[in-house]
Amino acid sequence: MIPVLNVYPWNNEVYMIRYNNYDRAVINTVPHDVVQRWYVAHRGLTTELRKPENKLWVKLKPGKVLFIDNWRVLHGRESFTGLRQLCGCYLTRDDVLNTARSLGLQA
């Protein structure tokens, strides 16, 4: 079972979250009581994530770019009337952080 929240062992700071309420495999590799506790915790996390104060809506205009750190930010889209074109790509974490450091940016 892959953890939903990944934390650094030396300071318990969350460095990665893995959450997708629509894409989850059957949990059949751990005891039933652990599965029950997992679903209770998952329901609590889902409730927190769906609270309006925990959401940020960004309406992009044509030509604007949005970079998202998939390890630290949950993101999604809503239905849309009209035309839109999304283009995605993946950058390696080390490359981005090293480039930021070499440019004198805080990484």
From TrEMBL:
Keyword Oxidoreductase: yes
Residues in coiled coil: none
Highest taxon listed in the record's lineage: Eukaryota
One function term, GO molecular function aspect: oxidoreductase activity
Cofactor (UniProt): L-ascorbate
Key word Oxidoreductase present: yes
A biological process from GO: carnitine biosynthetic process
Protein name: TauD/TfdA-like domain-containing protein
